[in-house]
Structures are given as structure tokens and as C-alpha cells.
Design a protein that fits this description.
The protein is mainly beta and 326 residues long. The protein is 8% helix and 41% strand. A five-stranded mixed beta sheet has the order 21-25-24-23-22, with no helix packed on it. A hairpin with a 7-residue loop joins strand 7 and strand 8. Residues 1-25 form the signal peptide.
């Protein structure tokens, strides 16, 4: 290479040095501000529970979102270790309990002043969690197992139904009577406070229950695949199909303003009217699966949750509530 070539290389190196020295550092302030928000776009809301103005949203991203004002604003609380909250319930004293896919049960007092993890040895995968009127904790799931704790998780009483199936819903309707539903149309009941569980009737053949709501020892609803919804008025002995006008699978059923409501696939929010489930219209509905819904009686709204950090409060008339997380 002659001296002209060396000179060209030197000029190029000098220009590169000047260019790099003048390059402005990228402005990351917007990214930092986004990262500080309590609700992140990667959050998928899988469960909701409320007691008064206190609301808890469980995510699959290792955190719970908590609100002290009925869902108007949120704070983020990280949970130790890998965590994915799949179900939450609240006890009469305001204590929250939540099941974790990673074989843990989380609990927080009524003030939501901190979360404590307890090991959950059974079932292997928890699919349902419930706190009854006496403050007893219930968990059900794979292996046809139902477990109960009378001492806030220190010890557990175990019921094995001796079946190869999943129990997907469980609810005690009073001190003595309770219902659990599972794969293959299974319905089991207790009439002695959970000491024993026995089969009663059956859901339609091959029915897989997504959600259930019982309002008494005789009446309840269960949702399943392909938008199926069935109703009993005789304690589960017989079931009648009801029309689901949304046509979408429903993943949570709950009471709101004295009427059964449900949320599900395609952004569906529905309520019972007569013997049919009709859509509740709300603005800017997203066609995404709503895995969570809960009634917040203190401000007469229902909260819905789904993927993409979706948390929205819907008024009883169907309008989005101002100030609610979107």
C-alpha cells in the first residue's frame, strides 16, 4: 500500500472517531418511565379477588397487583421465586389466599401488608382455591384431590376421590354443603362440612368445567367447552342447558349486583337474564381471552382482566369506569 492509501485510511479513522465522539446517547427516559408502571404489557391477569375496596390481581409474571381504591389505581408487588398465580379467593376476615402454579399457596392479610408463601404438597397442580364462611382454606386439582386447612395452612386434611381426573372448581355454599366439579362431567358434593365427598348426578357426557357458581345448596351454574353453560336447581342431580348468546367459552362466573355474571374468550362479558346469558357491552372491547373477573361492590363495578396487562373496570350499565386501569 502506498502513502496515498495510508493517508486515506488515516482520514477514515479520524472521521470515524469524530462521528463516534459526536453521537448523542439514546434517550431512555420513556423506557424507564414505562418500566416503573405497576401494570406491564407483559402481564397476563389470571385471577382477581376483592374485599371492600381492596382488590388483588394475580399474574403469570411473578407479581401481584394490588389496589386499595377498588381498581382505580394499582401497586405492583413482586413474589419471590418463579411464580404464576392462577386463582385467588378472599376470606370473611379479608385475608386473601392464592394458588401458584409452582406448588405454593400465597396469603396476605386484609391490609395487603405483605405476601407469605406456604408450600403446597398436594395436589400436584392446584386448579381451584376457596375460603369458606368459617375461614377454612380449600384447594383442589389434579389427581382428584381435595385438601382443606383449618389452621391457615399449617396442616391439611386430604380427600382422595380415587379417580384419574382433575377437579377444576370447588365452593362451599354454607357451613355444611359444598360442590366440586371436574373432568368427564364429574360432580361431587359434601353435606357434612367437607368431611366426606360423594358423587351426585353428572354433567353432560365429557363435560369439562371451566367455572362454576353455586348460590345455594340447590342452585348453581357450570360453564364448559365451546360456550356450554348448564344450570341445576336440585343440587346437581339434574342439569339443564342454558343459552349463551356470546357463544364464547366462559372462564369465570361470579355474582355482581345480585346477578350472575361471567367473563371469557373473545373479550366476552355476559350476565344472566331469565334463562339466557346475554352480552354486557362495554367500549373498546378487545377480542382477547378474559381469564379473570370480579365484582367490586364498593363502587358498583366489575373488574375484568386478561393478557397484555388488561385490567378494566366496567360499570353495571356496561360503560368503562373513568380512571380505571386499561
Amino acid at each position: 500500500m502506498n502513502h496515498y492509501g495510508f493517508r486515506a485510511l488515516a482520514v477514515c479513522a479520524a472521521l470515524a472517531s469524530l462521528a463516534s465522539g459526536c453521537t448523542q446517547a439514546p434517550d431512555l427516559s420513556a423506557a424507564r418511565a414505562e418500566a416503573q408502571k405497576p401494570v406491564q404489557r407483559y402481564d397476563s391477569i389470571q385471577a382477581l379477588a376483592a374485599h371492600g375496596d381492596r382488590v388483588v390481581a394475580g399474574t403469570r409474571s411473578g407479581a401481584v397487583l394490588v389496589s386499595a381504591d377498588g381498581g382505580q389505581s394499582w401497586q405492583r408487588e413482586a413474589l419471590a421465586g418463579p411464580s404464576s398465580i392462577t386463582g385467588i379467593d378472599v376470606c370473611p376476615d379479608g385475608r386473601f389466599i392464592a394458588i401458584d402454579f409452582y406448588r405454593k399457596l400465597w396469603t396476605a392479610d386484609a391490609k395487603l401488608s405483605g405476601w407469605t408463601a406456604l408450600p403446597l404438597e398436594a395436589p400436584h397442580t392446584a386448579l381451584a382455591v376457596h375460603c369458606d364462611r368459617q375461614g377454612r382454606w380449600w384447594v383442589a386439582g389434579t389427581g382428584a384431590l381435595i385438601v382443606r386447612s383449618d389452621d391457615q395452612g399449617k396442616s391439611w386434611v386430604r380427600t382422595d376421590l380415587q379417580e384419574d381426573l382433575q377437579i377444576t372448581t370447588l365452593q362451599m355454599v354454607d357451613e355444611q354443603n359444598g360442590f366440586a366439579t371436574g373432568e368427564f362431567g364429574t360432580v361431587v358434593v359434601t353435606t357434612d362440612g367437607g368431611d366426606t365427598w360423594t358423587k351426585r348426578g353428572a354433567l353432560p357426557a365429557e363435560f369439562y368445567p371451566y367455572a362454576a357458581l353455586f348460590v345455594s345448596a340447590t342452585e348453581g351454574w357450570v360453564s364448559g367447552l365451546a360456550g356450554q353453560l348448564v344450570h341445576t336447581t336440585d343440587g346437581g342431580l339434574t342439569w339443564q342447558a342454558q343459552v349463551n348468546r356470546a357463544g364464547a367459552p366462559l372462564y369465570r362466573i361470579f355474582m355482581h349486583a345480585g346477578t350472575p355474571h361471567a367473563v371469557g374468550a373473545g373479550g366476552a362479558v355476559v350476565r344472566l337474564q331469565g334463562d339466557e346469558w346475554i352480552a354486557v357491552a362495554y367500549p373498546d372491547a378487545r377480542p382477547v381471552p378474559l381469564a379473570a373477573g370480579v365484582s367490586v361492590a364498593s363502587n358498583n363495578t366489575l373488574l375484568i382482566g386478561g393478557p397484555g396487562g388488561l385490567l378494566r373496570a366496567v360499570t353495571d350499565s356496561g360503560a368503562s369506569k373513568p380512571g380505571a386501569a386499561q
